[in-house]
């Protein structure tokens, strides 16, 4: 893709904002290590404001797409963070001028404008443990590239952004609350730099059409139609599906189906597994016997969310005798929309479970 249109930019920023909202807890945990812990909330508030203004405003000019996104962040986040992060979008909007669309070179000029605005307002430089430690490498990629393809350049930019995030662990903090920690701020990544990396990763993901998750479905004879309905709904949501059976109402032992789906998850043949039986209990017990697998029975919307966010459960189970299909659809959609984030407090607990499992196998 060589040109970024206003409609594409608008949809891209909405998608990016939605990804930031999902990362609220993750960003808060990072900020809490050396800051006051409110970065995740601030970014989420700014992202929600972007969604509101872009979804409810008939914007046709590409400069206004970025400018309105920037102003939404500034007005909703408040304080220094609002001013600084709004500059990322305002810089691109300013450079866009009255163009109908943007090339890689023109978008890169906008990023350089954003860097200049941020440095003027915040006085930070590369190596000061701020968002610039990932934004400047991204701007450099756009400036130095010979490619005219947005996807190609963004892929390289995302890598540069995360390398910048990693480098912030080696820097002493010079701004915000963290500057008072001195050497205690070492070995901790900067939340602002992480947010920048998430932003450009989301842009890349959106423009390449999103990452299609492959979901495997399995059921015993008590839940064939239930499984088929959930499988069809997953296809409607845009997921790639694999059916592991069962296909008739003749008796079948559910452990065999559970083991097959669980082994497919473990081998990464599929990304997630959905297992259905009468109650969902037997399938969960069986799947959890496969080393490395975490299967969770879903009965309510909160559990559907936390199965991934807190427990990194690769498999969800349902009970055709005890759940309505409409409720199960909602739980399936919520579960598949969530992704476990490394670095959160939950990761330590998951690692304890995995270590215990490994010790048993010795």
Q: Would you kindly provide a brief summary of this structure?
A:
With 362 residues, the protein is α/β, with parallel strands linked by helices. 60% of the residues lie in helices and 8% in strands. The chain has 15 helices and seven strands.
Protein described:
Homodimer. The dihydroxyacetone kinase complex is composed of a homodimer of DhaM, a homodimer of DhaK and the subunit DhaL. One of its GO terms (biological process) is lactose metabolic process. Keywords: Glycerol metabolism, Isomerase, Kinase, Lactose metabolism, Transferase. The protein has helices at residues 6-22, 24-34, 39-55, 62-77, 79-96, 104-122, 132-144, 150-167, 191-207, 224-236, 254-266, 281-287, 301-309, 325-337, 345-361; strands at 4-5, 101-102, 214-219, 240-243, 272-277, 295-297, 315-319. With 362 residues, it is α/β, with parallel strands linked by helices. The protein has 2 domains: 1-208, Alpha Horseshoe (Serine Threonine Protein Phosphatase 5, Tetratricopeptide repeat), CATH 1.25.40.340; 212-359, Sugar-phosphate isomerase, RpiB/LacA/LacB (Ribose 5-phosphate Isomerase B, Chain: A), CATH 3.40.1400.10. The strands form 2 sheets. Strands 4-3-5-7-6 form a 5-stranded parallel β-sheet, with helices on both faces.
């Amino acid at each position: 893709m060589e040109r970024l249109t206003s409609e594409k930019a608008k949809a891209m920023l909405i998608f990016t904002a939605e990804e930031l909202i999902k990362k609220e807890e993750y960003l808060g945990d990072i900020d809490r290590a050396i800051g006051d812990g409110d970065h995740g909330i601030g970014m989420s508030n700014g992202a929600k404001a972007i969604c509101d203004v872009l979804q409810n405003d008939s914007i046709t000019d590409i400069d206004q797409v970025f400018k309105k996104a920037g102003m939404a962040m500034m007005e909703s986040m408040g304080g220094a963070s609002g001013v600084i992060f709004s500059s990322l979008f305002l810089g691109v909007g300013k450079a866009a001028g009255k163009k109908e669309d943007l090339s890689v070179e023109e978008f890169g000029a906008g990023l350089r404008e954003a860097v200049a605005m941020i440095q003027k307002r915040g006085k930070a430089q590369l190596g000061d443990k701020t968002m610039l430690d990932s934004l400047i490498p991204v701007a450099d990629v756009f400036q130095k590239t010979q490619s005219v393809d947005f996807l190609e350049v963004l892929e390289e930019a995302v890598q540069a952004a995360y390398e910048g995030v990693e480098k912030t662990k080696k820097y002493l903090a010079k701004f915000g609350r963290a500057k008072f920690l001195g050497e205690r701020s070492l070995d901790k990544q900067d939340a602002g730099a992480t947010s920048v990396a998430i932003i450009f990763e989301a842009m890349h993901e959106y423009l390449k059409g999103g990452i299609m998750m492959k979901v495997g479905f399995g059921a015993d004879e008590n839940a064939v139609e239930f499984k088929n309905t959930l499988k069809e709904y997953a296809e409607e949501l845009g997921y790639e599906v694999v059916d592991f059976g069962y296909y008739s109402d003749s008796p079948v032992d559910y452990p065999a189906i559970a083991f097959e789906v669980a082994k497919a998850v473990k081998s990464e043949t599929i990304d997630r597994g959905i297992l259905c039986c009468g109650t969902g209990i037997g399938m969960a017990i069986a799947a959890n016997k496969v080393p490395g697998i975490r299967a969770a029975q879903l009965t309510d919307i909160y559990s559907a969310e936390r199965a991934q966010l807190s427990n990194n459960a690769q498999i969800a189970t349902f009970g055709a005798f005890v759940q309505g299909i409409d409720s199960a659809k909602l739980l399936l959609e919520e579960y598949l929309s969530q992704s476990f984030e490394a670095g959160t407090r939950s990761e330590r607990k998951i690692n304890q479970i995995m270590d215990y499992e490994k010790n048993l196998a010795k």
